[in-house]
Structure formats: C-alpha cells, structure tokens
Amino acid sequence: MSDRTISDIERGISLGPRRGTMLALADALKLQAGERERFLASARAGRKPATPDARSVDIEPHRLADFTGRESEILSVVAQLDPTGAAGGPAAPVVLHGAPGVGKTSIAIEALHRCATLAPIRLFVDLGGLDAVPLTPLQVLQALLRQLTGDPDVPKKLGEAAAAWRTAAEASAVAILLDDAANEAQVRPVLTSAGQGAVVVTSRRALAGLESARRLTIGPLPRQEGIAFLRRIIPAAQAETGDLDELARFCDDIPLALRIAGNRLATQPSWTVEDFLRRLRREERRLSALAAGDLAMESTFALSYEHLSAPARTLFRRLSLVDGPSFDARLAGAVGDLDVDEAEDLLDGLAGLGLVETLRGDRYRLHDLLRLYAASRLRAEETSDAISAERRRLRGWLLATALTAGSRFEPRPPDAPPVDGRLTFSSNDEARAWLITEAEHWFAAYQAAAARGDHATVLTVADSLHWFSDLWRAWGRWHEVFATSAAAAAALDDPAQQARHLGYLAWAQLVETFDPAQARTTADAALRAARRAGDVQQSGWANFYLAWSMLNVREFDVAHGYADAAVHDFAAAGDVEGELQARSIGASIRSRYEPEAAIGEHRELLEFVQRVGDELPASIRGLTEANAHAVIAYGLLQLDRHEEALAAASAALAIGSSAEFQSGHASAHRHRGLAQLGLGRVDEARADLATALALGAGARSAAWLDEVRAALDAIPG
C-alpha cells in the first residue's frame, strides 16, 4: 500500500480504512491477541455513521436469479411463514443458523418471495450481528415501524416503541426477516406482537435462549446441488473444461465459495476450469484464490474470528494442527493445553459462530476452508518455533495415549503409566473405542514419528498395538503400521526387533491383505533376522507364520514341517504360549487332509489347556480354546457328523465375544450353519451363515466370503 494510505490512518484522516488494509498492517506489525482485536475494532468503529438512524438497515438484499437447490429448507421455512397455521397467534420464529457463507440470508429471502400471497407485507432489518456495535432492540423496532407505518417519526423509548409495534403488527399479516442477529435480545421485542405475522431470523449463532423458536441448521450444499449451482454461473462451454466435482470439493460445497469460484471463471473467459483448479490445489493459495470483487472467503471467516475471545482464537488456530476429520473436547484440550471443561466451553463458542461444526457423540469438525483459514491465522500470529512445539506436543500426547490404550490388550498388561497428560482408561472397552475413533489422529502422529526418524517411539507404539490389532482387523491399515515398524527396526540395525516386527507384518499380510505369498517372503526375512540375533523365540514365531502361509496355499506337508519347527523353537525358549499356538496350527494343518487325526489332536490340546490354563493369560487361553473347538467342528463336518459339529461350533461361540474373536466367531458361525443345514434346520442355518458373512467382512478373505455366500444362496426359500 502507499505511504499516503498509512499516513492518513496515522493522522486520523482515514477513520475507517478497508479491512484488507488493516489486516495487512496488523500482520506487518505482528500484533497479537488483544492488540490485534483493538486495532481492527478501531477501524470498524470508524466506519460507523454518526447516527444509528442513518444506517441502511432496512434495504432488503435482492432475490438471486441463479438460486439453486435448498428445496427442503425453503419448504420448511415457507410452512412456518403461513399465517393460517399459527393457531390464532403469531407463528413460531424460524432461526436459520450455520457457518459463514452457507447462504442463510439467500434461503430466507427466497422463502419470503415464494410465500408472497400468504404474507403480502414483507419487512427486513439487518441487525448487524458482527458489527462492532450491533443494532439495539430499540433500533430494530424503529426500523420495523418505519417500514410498516411509513411514518419516519417513531418512538424514542423502548417501551413506547414496543407498544407501537404491537398495535401496528396486529393489524397486518407480515413476514419479517431479521438478518444477522447478534443475540436473542435484538429479536425478542419483535415477537411480543399478537398479530398473524411470522419471523425469520438468520444468525451465525443458534440463539439457544430464544423462546419457542424452530431452528434449522444450514450446512454446505449437497455435492450435486453445488455442481448444478456452478453450471448456472459458469458459461456452458467453459464449464466443460475441467472437473466441477473437484471444484465443488475445493469450495467445501459452501455456496459463497462456489459463487466466488463461478464468478471468477465467468469473468475470465480465457480460463478453463482446470486452470482455476491448478490454483486451488495449492493449499497455501486456496483462500486467496477464493476472492472475487468484494466477495472473499477469508474476510467472511475473519468476521467471526474477530468476535472470539483470545483463548478461543488460540484454540481455533491450533485446531488446524489436528490431522483427522473430527475431534472431541479431549483432543481439543490436548492441542490447546486446556482441561476438558475449558475446551468444551471454547468449542461451544466456536460452534456458536459457525467456525466449527458439532457432530454426534460430542465430536466436532473443522471444514477444510476453515482449517486453511485457521492455519493462516496460526502462521500470522504465532512463531514457527511455537507452532512446531505445539505440533510435537499434540503428536506426543496422541502416541502416549495410543500406547496406554494398546497396552491394555496385552496378555500381561503393564502397570498403569505415570500421569503425564495422556488419557487413561478405566476399561478395555473404553480403550478400544478411543483407538478406533481417533485412529486417523494417532496414525498420522505415528507416521510423523517415522518420518522424523524417531524409530524407538515407532517400535514402542507398534509393540503396544500388536495385540489390539487382532481385535480390529477391519481397519485395514495394520500392514502399514507394521511395515513402518519393521523399517524402523531395520534402520536401527536391530535384528531381534526386525524379527519381531516382520512377524507382525506377516500376520497382517495373512489376515488383512490376504496375501500368503508375500507373508511367506516376510516371514522368511523374519526367520533370517531371528537367527542373526540368536533369538529362538522369534525363530518360533517366524516358523509359525511360515506354517500359516503354507497352509493358506494348501502346501500341507511344507506347512507341517514349519509348524513342527515352531513347536521345537518355542519349547527351547520355554514359551508355553507360543508352543500352544504352534501346536494349534499344526493340528489345523492336519485337519485339511486327516480330519479324524486333527480332531484328536485338538481335543488333546484342549485337555492340555485345561491343565495349564491358570498359567496362561486369559486372552491366549480363550483364543486357543475357541480356535480348537472351531477346528474340531470343521473336521466333524468333513465326516458328516453334524450333531457333534453343531455342539463343537456352539462351544467355540460360547468363548468370548465376536468383538474379541471376530475371525474365529465368523468361522464358528459358518461351521454351525453348515451343521444346521446338514440336520435340515433351514432357518437356523440361514441365520448362522448370514452372521458368518457379516462377521467375516474385513476379517476373512474374499474366497472365504464367496464360499459362505454361495452356501447361503443355495438354501431353498
């Protein structure tokens, strides 16, 4: 900007400079928190006219010729504006609230025009909700009285104005739009009339204290409506020069952003849609690109941001550091260094101004454009060192909490960790829920630790999640977790750790990506690493995964050799738990070609578990017993001994829950369903096979699912 512009501001000649000028100066001066707000507020105050009555508060915005979509919202508003439905009194006010730029005012105006025959008199007042000094209740009533009576001489006191408004409104059926409300107090006096009118209020806030109101949250447009809106703005030939779906996505489906994008293209006929998309794909340029004339997404968001308290601004800025799509107050507290109650209060304030969206389950979401705006404010108002420190602290909290949650599922959980800010969990169910719900967050922190070479942390977290991974196979990203940890072990040149984590990876390739050939390659590498480390126990696990891999490709003799080697290694290492697993898979291999012998081996295995059961962790014992009963059921089915197979499958299902043993329970339901079918119990068979199909999704291979599906489809009726 010119030196004259700055000089005019300094000397008080320019009392209300443009917002863009003030933002540029605030950034250049590195103003923080309260200083920044006072600086910007002084410009807003300077733009206010000398007298409130001189404001153009009653000029209704024009009806949009290219208005698109929103039929359900408009019909809902129109229904409320119908005076015949008012039951002898005024209709309940309708409050349209939502994030900046979602089109609340446009919806209200469209609804008012569509019901002109029901409410021939239409009144409008801009309440200035985001102005430095919004309209007072008296000024609202005065504006309405001037419009309704045509008399410029209106009462100067609130009580007299309220009485005059009641008298005037009772004589007419009016539809009133109160736009951009700051608070409930601005609206309440308008509702005191007993007339047949209806009131529509728009606000970024929900106005939760307003009595008897019907609230409608306005969100982004559905994607197809957003694309249709773009097609109404962009010339037809130009609209075919790029992907409008991608353009709508970059605009977050927010109507104002869509209009800006459409207007920019329409006013630049030499541009293609792809030309504009190239700008929007650069996150650092996206907000600045979404500006056309006096419309700009950044300034729209800034109006809400400038109304926040200093702590709320800090939290909003730092929420841009959150990687996942949604978050709760605990995670917000971690990023803002707040306790949960403080975080909840601040999040409620952010939601009230449309800067975050509330979701079910006490969760919140920051839409992409708002995330970019928050990140821009973070860079402008905090130092790079402070930002890096906050990001490290958040990721450290996530990884520490993931470690705490995952450790609960180990056969012998460690003692509770010292309190260091991480969450603690009172039950396994609570820990499981957190790991699943916050997976995008802790996994992003895990990947970041790997990227910066923090190999020790990667190995510790992966180890803590190993046992939990078997309980949530449907996630589908465990092979990435363990490929990362195996790479970390290789980077540390620690063969024992390599063997352990390559074993985890082989497991994921067997049960998650269903790739036994790759699992064999990985397990071979684990065996070499275990031998290099002289770790007999890890040799046992590598041989176990090799046996499992060969079983899946039906090379039974080779598989049995690996299983015997695993039993030998585990016995040498004194690992009773591992030996149980190896004997179990050996018996499972035999069930494929010697069902009678396999049944006997598994019954011996169950007797052994009964003898040493107290020495085993409950999870290992349950897994072994459930698997043994399921394999016995499978063998009995091969021998057409359906009653016995039914009893064995039911015994497997009686151990643990489907959440604990999803894959095993899927197999047991499959075996019981086929046994029921063999006994002629069609309805019971159908129910079991359907359950097997549901549990097997994400836990069993496509071939296994196809087999169950075929059996289910073959059932008559």
UniProtKB/TrEMBL annotation:
InterPro entries: Lambda_DNA-bd_dom_sf, P-loop_NTPase, TPR-like_helical_dom_sf. It comes from the Bacteria. SUPFAM superfamilies: P-loop containing nucleoside triphosphate hydrolases, TPR-like. This is AAA+ ATPase domain-containing protein. It comes from Microbacterium yannicii.
